Amino acid sequence: MEKKKYLILTFGCQMNVHESEKLAGILEKNGYEVCTNATQADVVVFNTCAIRENAEQKIYGNIGELKNIKVAKPDMIIAVGGCMSQQNNYANEIMSKFPYVDIVFGTHNLADFEALLKKKIETGKRISSITEDETIALRDSLQIARTSGTNAWVNIMYGCNNFCTYCIVPYVRGREVSRPEKDILREVEALLKEGYKQITLLGQNVNSYRGKDEEGNEISFDKLLADIDKFDYKFRLRFMTSHPKDLSSEVIDVIAKSKHICHGIHLPIQCGSDKILASMNRKYTTEKYLKLIDEIKTKIPDVELTTDIIVGFPGETDEDFEGTLDIMRKVEYMQIFGFIYSKRKGTVAEKMADHIETKVKKDRLSRLLEVKNEIINRKTQEMLGKTYEVLVESFDEKTNTLYCSLDSGKTITVKGTKNCIGEFVDVKVTSVRKSVIYGEIVNTEDIANFKEKNFKYPIEVSILPKDQKGLKLLRENKKNQKAVNDLKSKK
Ligand code: SAH
Ligand code: SF4
Ligand code: F3S
After folding, report:
1. Which domain holds residue 396?
2. CATH assignment at residue 301
3. Do 113 and 93 belong together in one domain?
4. Which one, 44, 293, 340, 469, has the greatest CB density within 10 A?
5. Centre of ligand 3 from the C-alpha of residue 408, in Å
6. What is the three-class DSSP state of 142?
7. Beta 218-220 vs 198-202: how paired, if at all?
8. pLDDT at 470
9. DSSP 8-state symbol, 407
10. 339 Cβ inside 6 Å of ligand 1
């Protein structure tokens, strides 16, 4: 008998991408196999994000696009989970606005998805199930259908205690809970044995990791990093995200001495004005942040720094914004993710005075992008002629192109063969065009010995981390009227 099929559409951050791997694990355990088009799917799951308003609009648009298919295929089950549905007002809105959505669940009861699906199939009734209980042990015992190629995500903690005044995450992910160290070490070792080449530790604020070892002693983040670094495999260790208020000298020392930890650190500044930082409840000043950057650059001279910045937070003046541009120039980031402040219901900033006009926010973002491009273009030009050890992550058969990642996460494009995927190679940067970095492999004599490996990629299992891809997929379905008509005529 043909297997039933599933499709998962993922929005938001890496945490969500990884949780989609857990949802995929639940579905595969229940006999479903992945497909790439909603017209073939028996179950479609939306794993949603609530970080900014436009994330939500995209999700509503995508759910709306499924209506047509559901009419033609009434047995198809549509489920909506994740950060948006964790909020009761949204869960209710999804249930009433989209009567063809069958299951709504939140972030805390992800592990219940199996039971919810069975209940829906047995009773035929629509279910909305949101809990406040953090079922961390259950989440940790789930089978994971990994899809991230050479990289494997590993949760070290869940939740956030920081309550930055703009941010919805603490409300939809609950308080910080750290996994026991032995569980993390066991998972990492199994992944390395399986052949993964990069481990990315996940948490909203990894620096406040407080786990326990087997004797019940407290383990801090630097100790966890040092313990993972001891594994004797060829691999790269990454982590995200760091909060500047908690990044300790001990962690910097461990990175500087380590064999495996990437010399790439993502350290969100958010804003370059002390007044706004205080109003954001970030608990550091620009002076403290720059001191930290100095310490990092001194101890890890080849570090590649990246950051997140919000423009147009309530009360931000032109002068405050100039402060942000100033910090960008001083730190010289390798990558900057700039966001327009988005008002989130229930956060402290929502109620602040002096919300900034949309036009001003947009102008500031374009100015930020100009300065960002100046900095990054200069930094990439400086890379010309230098050689870097990079991880080969994927391959394009049509053009014989390999996509490799630097410590900063940036991509270098080189010509090569498929057997290089999952290998570390030395690449010399030969040209930079329109911010695309091109290079050539230097240690070509090694290539003949590389064996072909079989990593699973997001596209094959339709866990699409890029919102854009998710949107495109559903648009294609809409265009794909023939498939919908065929379904209708079969009915
Ligand atoms: N826990 C991580 C990441 C949180 S979300 C951290 O603290 O760094 C990722 C980024 O989204 C944040 O760093 C911030 O720059 C941005 N962000 C969060 N809430 C936002 C909002 N309401 N409007 C605009 N950007 C926001
Ligand atoms: Fe949000 Fe701040 Fe927590 Fe990051 S640290 S998730 S920005 S509240
Ligand atoms: Fe991530 Fe979005 Fe939730 S950024 S934690 S998926 S609100």
Report:
1. 387-449
2. 3.80.30.20
3. yes
4. 44
5. 22
6. coil
7. unpaired
8. 47
9. T
10. yes
Tokens of residue 172, six digits: 């939809």
- 97 and 152 in a single domain? The answer is no
Ligand 2 and 164: CB distance under 6 A: yes
With 0-12 / 13-18 / 19 or more C-beta atoms within 10 angstroms meaning exposed / middle / buried, residue 290 is middle
3-state secondary structure of 7: strand
Give the mutation target among 49, 156, 158, 167 for probing the ligand 1 site: most ligand atoms within 8 A of CB: 167
Residue 15: which CATH number?
Answer: 3.40.50.12160
Element counts in the chain: helices (H) and strands (E):
17, 21
Residues 364 and 314 in one domain: yes
Looking at residues 255-259, what average pLDDT do you find? 97
In a domain? residue 141: no
**Does the C-beta of 160 come closer than 6 Å to ligand 2?**
yes
pTM metric for this prediction: 0.93
* Residues 326, 177 within the same domain: yes
476 assigned to some structural domain? yes
Same domain, 174 and 79: no
Q: What is the pLDDT of residue 36?
A: 77
Ligand 1 centroid–CA 475 distance in Å is: 28
pLDDT at 467 over 70: no
Distance CA 436, CA 417 (A): 20
Instruction: Clarify whether residues 357 and 473 are in a common domain.
Output: no
Rounded-to-integer distance, Cα 17 and Cα 23, Å:
10
123 and 154 together in one domain: no
Torsion of CA 214, 16, 80, 106, to 10 degrees: 40
pLDDT tens track for 16-30: 989 999 999 999 999
Q: What is the pLDDT of residues 107-154, one digit of tens each?
A: 999 999 999 999 999 999 999 999 887 766 667 778 898 888 899 999
Ligand 3 binding site (Cβ under 6 Å of any ligand atom): 12-13, 15-16, 49-51, 83, 168-169, 172-173
Written as six digits, the tokens of 289 are 């942040």
| Coil vs helix vs strand at 440 | strand
User: Which helix or strand (DSSP H or E) is residue 137 part of?
Assistant: helix 136-140
